[in-house]
């Protein structure tokens, strides 16, 4: 079986103290499998937190390019959405859009499809799984809607539940999650920047109730500041605090989580994530994914920039920040305070994950791109970058595993 990465050792491995508390949405302590997608390929690895290393285990081919995936609580089933549609608002529509489930062999990492794949109406961009393994909710960025699929006893998926009304989830829906305790379903909508004669299309946070049959009902839509739009959220493991990474505007917001399962209408804290505010004007400078450390003391946000200029017949990075911003969380108020910004070791950190032990952060840098290196150019390949989490929450780069097919995007990764 062909390996699809090359390991690069770029820093010393220094032991760090791990923290024991695990988020309700995290995998179990003994979960040691990492999955990533390279185009239509689902790549399986074992992860060694103590040595900060990966070992290639398996490769499975999905029906089309993998868009997103999520494991169940037990860590033995992987739910995957795939599509051959293009990215973005104006991307090609494609003709293959699928929701699949796979049984995970926890010893070998091999994936075996469960039941039939479910055809979807358009490109799925994200999916969320409830904590009781009853429902999968799929988000669509083009139509800005959601679909709900019940789970069978064996873990396989069913066709979409007929809804009483269209679950409108906001302009360019980008993520859907269940709140802790499954009180509600929250969908983030990024919105779109003003283009030509089209004004700014606002981002929003859309919250739904879900009944026992899988019917969604809108609870509330909360607007976001102009020019700012959410991409990804993470729940604090022990406190009613929700941290939202703003793709448009490169911000971090913290919202209190209300008892009815909705986010407060206004954020309690707003923070910048970029190292240099001037990069707000850099083309395609955006906020990315967010992760809360299982100990609840720190959180991590990616900054992403992938605009290009042509040089010597090559598409070369136009600059901007591709890094990870590290925040310390105030245990009393939930306020995040920036303590570090560190190079992400690649281009476009689209997904990342803290391993369940709290020892490592893995960043999946999506793209292969040329960058300026003095008077010459060098190629930065898509990769899985491994960072050790130190006792103070800060990151230390250890190594990265480069992908060997630069024409395909490293679009998703999870542990």
Could you outline the blueprint of secondary structure elements for this entry?
Blueprint: E1 5-9, E2 33-38, E3 41-48, E4 53-61, E5 66-71, E6 77-83, E7 97-104, E8 111-113, E9 118-119, E10 124-129, E11 135-140, E12 145-151, E13 157-160, E14 173-178, E15 185-189, E16 204-210, E17 216-223, E18 229-235, E19 241-248, E20 251-256, E21 269-272, E22 285-292, E23 298-305, E24 308-311, E25 314-317, E26 323-329, E27 336-343, E28 347-354, E29 360-367, E30 369-373, E31 376-380, E32 383-389, E33 395-403, E34 412-414
Description of the structure:
The protein is mostly beta strands. It has 2 domains: 223 residues, 7 Propeller (Methylamine Dehydrogenase, Chain H), CATH 2.130.10; 162 residues, Methylamine Dehydrogenase, Chain H (7 Propeller). Helices cover 0% and strands 51% of the residues. The chain contains no helices and 34 strands. Strands 1-33-32-29-28 form a 5-stranded antiparallel β-sheet, with no helix packed on it. Strands 5, 6, 7, 8 and 9 form a 5-stranded antiparallel β-sheet that branches. It has a 4-stranded antiparallel β-sheet with strand order 4-3-2-34, with no helix packed on it. It is globular, with a radius of gyration of 20 Å. About 6% of the residues have low confidence.
